[in-house]
Design brief:
With 61 residues, the chain is mostly helical. The chain has one domain. The chain is built from 2 helices and 2 strands. Strand 1, helix 1 and strand 2 form a beta-alpha-beta unit. The longest helix is centred in the N-terminal third of the chain and has 13 residues. It is globular. It starts with 5 loop residues before the first strand and ends in a 17-residue tail after the last helix.
């Protein structure tokens, strides 16, 4: 399967690919923002999430 994703920047690319290693079935299409990549990363690695970190409400949908 060809990856047609567009990343906001290199940080988004790194975060998304780190989360992808843990969960290869991650949902994504179109473009990946840093915020969405961070959300997916913390979802894949909850132990890495800083104390007090909260997702923005619209990212949970």
């Amino acid at each position: 399967m060809k990856n047609n994703l567009v990343y906001e920047n290199h940080d988004a690319y790194l975060l998304y690919n780190a989360a992808l290693e843990k969960n290869p079935e991650l949902p994504a299409h179109g473009s990946i923002s840093v915020q969405y990549a961070l959300y997916l990363y913390y979802k894949a690695y909850p132990e890495e999430r800083p104390i007090g970190y909260r997702y923005k409400r619209h990212m949970l949908a």
